[in-house]
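Notes from the 1:1 (GR / supervisor)

We went over the backlog. Supervisor wanted to see one worked example end to end before approving the batch request, so GR pasted a single chain during the call. The sequence is below; no edits were made to it. Supervisor asked that the structure be written out right there so they could see what the output format looks like.
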Amino acid sequence: MAYVESAAVLYLRTIYGGIDPVGPRHTPFHPLPDFIWIEIGREVATLLMLASVGFLAARTLPGRLGAFALAMGLWDIFYYVFLWLFAGWPASLFDQDVLFLIPLPWWGPVVSPALLAALMVATGAAAMAREFGDGVPKLGRADCIAILAGAALCLLAFMAGAVLTLPSGLDVAYDTRGGGPFPWPLFLLGLGIASSGLVHAITRAAR
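Structure output shown during the call:
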């Protein structure tokens, strides 16, 4: 699926101005034409597909959520691997990219979603290990809150530009483009909180 996703994005971006969404050749990012709703629908379809993988891969809700996180993290990482193989982009892990459009556009350097995806893979793998009886205990409430709160801060960092312009209208929020300073302190805080919850849960299992 990562191959299919990267191929579709390569076609779209090539047609509309270039693979780099903030490069000098790229036309202004403006997701208001009719095709953008098809693109949002494609994102929804991708989430449904990943959710189906999670549902079929486990028996319990935590296991299914873990399988979903594992699949989504791997999909996100290999999406960029295939884009790089196809087009040589991103040239740097700090190249800006539009990451998602639901509920508002997500922007950030490529390394940021890759780091979050790696955390999702680790969290999902831990949940799946517990599902298959590998000695990982049930996720504690504090650990769960830490992981969810940290992930929420990361998502807020991705959507910060759109959120700040939202009072001016949804159109303005969707017109917000990347290229400005990424809120690294907010993102790293969220990543650190989520990682601490995961590490605490795993080390608790090892005791």
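Supervisor's comment: The longest strand covers residues 96-100.
Batch request approved.
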